[in-house]
Amino acid sequence: MRQDRRFFAEIRANCENRRLDDYAQGGLRTIQVGIESLSNSLLRKMTKGVAVIDNIAIMKHSAAADIRLEGNLILEFPGSDATEVAETIANLDFVLPFSPLGKAVFFLGAGSPIHRSPREYG
Hints:
The protein is built from five helices and four strands, in the order E-H-E-H-H-E-H-E-H. The protein is α/β, with parallel strands linked by helices. Strands 1-2-3-4 form a four-stranded parallel sheet. The longest helix has 14 residues, at about 80-95. It starts with 6 loop residues before the first strand and ends in a 6-residue tail after the last helix.
């Protein structure tokens, strides 16, 4: 009997290409990646630990590996500014060939860095 080995995973944007290829060979078909922004300064504020180029690279490589990527851009992040919005909009040109990113309105999670240190985020 043939078994269905397709699976879903949540991964970070800095996942190695080789590892993503291995996952795809093992049945990975959809990933959720915490893209959150296409602005380097906003990614630093979010303490994501990745850069815009990492986000674009995972989008490109997942498409090449025939893995569907689900990701969001966070709107209304505390402390974000017009420059970061403009940078994100400009960088959208580089991700148009890939699966579209959804939008997610910021919410304050209990225990999150913003919850613990609200003054740091304005």
